[in-house]
């Protein structure tokens, strides 16, 4: 007998009146006095459950009467059109086997009532059972697919970059150590400093903050490459946008400028959003009814507007002339705080924006120095409600300037010799960016906190399982 999933039924891939077998969990159940049970089951493949009808003449009907929300079952029955209008299909069931009961049903954490996001964060291992997390997970999967699809179609090569590294690629110092040293007996050298020579890799090692530097080595050979993986930041940022472990898409291309990657960043986000609007209708509808009633208009509007490009200095001028009391004084050299980003995106431009050419002191050592010697060829893409979603730049391809930037920032040149090699041997102009995957999902779904997007979020003092 054919084993089917709920999405196959709703996608009209199963012929009506055929016998099917289905595995799932109980979302709801109701038993009528006349000896008929109506059970909604879900299997993760679709936002809507499917109603299963069971009559009392089934051999184990006494078990059916004991079923509660969360039990796992397998059923066999006939797929029929529903006589009621609430749903299109139902399954007339002649066999049911209970695979897993629920201990203490009254205490089941995922009861059928509505739960708050905060509440669900206390049961990370069970929350995938909710409609909400199911929806986010399916959309995330489609975003992943769309992203690779776009890159494959446009001839980018996927390169896995290392997760364990000895380099701080952003030069920002917010890295997690990777070590097998005995924490209760750390070896020290004669200067009293930790002796990393005795550690697993023979040198100080970390979880990567970005795959960019190693990706550049492949861009300088294969032209158009990308990497997608987890990245780690030990920043003490307790906001709705920051995770200590997040996924980043990084694209790097040779023979390319800041302008080229700015255009590319808009293209890929629009491709992904178009794909989601086309393929995730039922999940977007759920979000529309539950939490973001403008979701369709919001995404359609994003597609219809061209992203505004603006220079950092012009953004500073707009903020200086704004009739708003910002908490910090606006002046050249400052980094934008979320109040500034919000003003520019939501109040001034009413659209996504790309800010370019930041002062060099705000950005990493590898960004290309502009002719004014004060700014670098950097770009940040800011989205409404979220703020920065992409950070990128044209890379410094001139060996001497790169070396002097390393010196200026007090970074150890000898650790970057291999990186400087890329400038010694056939250097090319190249550029790239990193896109925060959870922030993109947050924008698409309208769910503000990335803790509700990431399956098992890691944040400061929070590392469940
Ligand atoms: O701007 P960032 O730090 O850029 C880089 O790491 C570059 N090396 C990327 C590149 O050019 N290849 O990070 C890129 C993006 C940000 O715009 C943001 O969307 C996301 O990564 N991001 C975070 N997302 C969640 N939690 C955090 N703590 C994040 N930090 C950055
Ligand atoms: Mg950034």
SSE diagram, text form:
Blueprint: E1 2-3, H1 6-10, E2 19-31, E3 36-42, E4 50-55, H2 61-64, E5 72-81, E6 89-100, H3 117-120, H4 131-153, E7 157-158, E8 164-165, E9 177-178, E10 205-207, H5 212-222, E11 224-232, E12 245-254, H6 258-279, H7 281-290, H8 295-304, E13 308-311, H9 312-321, H10 338-349, E14 353-359, E15 375-383, E16 387-394, H11 399-408, H12 417-424, E17 430-436, H13 437-445
Parallel strand pairs: 1-2, 4-6, 7-11, 13-14
Antiparallel strand pairs: 2-3, 2-5, 3-4, 5-6, 8-10, 9-10, 11-12, 12-17, 14-15, 15-16, 16-17
Helix pairs in contact: 4-6, 4-7, 6-8
The site of 4-amino-1,4-dioxobutan-2-aminium adenosine-5'-monophosphate (4AD) has 23 residues, from strand 12, strand 16, strand 17 and helix 13.
């Amino acid at each position: 007998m054919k084993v089917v999933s709920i999405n196959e039924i709703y996608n009209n891939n199963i012929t009506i009146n055929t016998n099917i077998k289905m595995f799932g969990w109980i979302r709801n159940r109701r038993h009528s006095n006349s000896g008929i049970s109506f059970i909604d089951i879900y299997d993760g493949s679709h936002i809507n459950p499917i109603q299963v009808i069971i009559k009392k003449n089934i051999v184990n009907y006494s078990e059916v009467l004991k079923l509660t929300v969360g039990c796992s079952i397998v059923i066999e029955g006939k797929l029929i059109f529903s006589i009621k209008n609430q749903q299109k299909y139902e399954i007339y069931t002649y066999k049911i086997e209970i695979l897993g009961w629920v201990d203490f049903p009254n205490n089941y954490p995922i009861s059928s009532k509505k739960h708050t996001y905060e509440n669900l964060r206390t049961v990370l291992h069970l929350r995938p059972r909710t409609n909400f997390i199911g929806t986010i997970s399916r959309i995330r999967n489609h975003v992943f697919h769309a992203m690779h699809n776009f890159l494959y179609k446009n001839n980018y090569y996927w390169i896995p970059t290392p997760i364990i590294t000895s380099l701080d690629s952003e030069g920002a110092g917010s890295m997690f150590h990777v070590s097998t040293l005995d924490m209760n007996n750390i070896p020290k050298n004669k200067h009293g400093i930790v002796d990393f020579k005795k550690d697993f890799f023979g040198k100080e090692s970390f979880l990567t903050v970005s795959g960019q530097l190693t990706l550049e080595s492949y861009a300088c050979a294969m032209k158009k490459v990308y990497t997608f993986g987890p990245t780690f930041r030990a920043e003490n940022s307790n906001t709705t946008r920051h995770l200590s472990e997040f996924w980043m898409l990084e694209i790097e291309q040779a023979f390319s400028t800041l302008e080229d990657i700015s255009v590319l960043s808009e293209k890929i986000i629009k491709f992904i959003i178009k794909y989601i609007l086309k393929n995730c209708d039922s999940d977007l509808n759920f979000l529309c009814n539950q939490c973001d009633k403008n979701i369709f208009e919001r995404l359609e509007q994003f597609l219809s507007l061209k992203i505004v490009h603006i220079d950092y200095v012009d953004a500073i001028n707009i903020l200086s002339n704004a009739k708003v009391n910002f908490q910090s004084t606006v002046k050249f050299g400052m980094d934008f705080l979320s109040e500034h980003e919000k003003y520019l995106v939501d109040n001034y431009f009413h659209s996504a924006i790309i800010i370019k050419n930041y002062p060099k002191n705000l950005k990493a050592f590898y960004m290309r120095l502009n002719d004014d010697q004060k700014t670098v060829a950097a770009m940040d893409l800011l989205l409404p409600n979220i703020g920065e979603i992409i950070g990128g730049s044209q890379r410094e391809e001139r060996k001497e300037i790169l070396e002097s930037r390393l010196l200026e920032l007090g970074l150890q040149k000898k650790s970057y010799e291999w990186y400087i090699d890329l400038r010694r041997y056939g250097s090319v102009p190249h550029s790239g960016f990193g896109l925060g995957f959870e922030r993109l999902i947050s924008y698409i779904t309208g769910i503000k906190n990335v803790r509700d997007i990431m399956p098992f979020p890691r944040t400061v003092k929070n590392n469940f399982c």
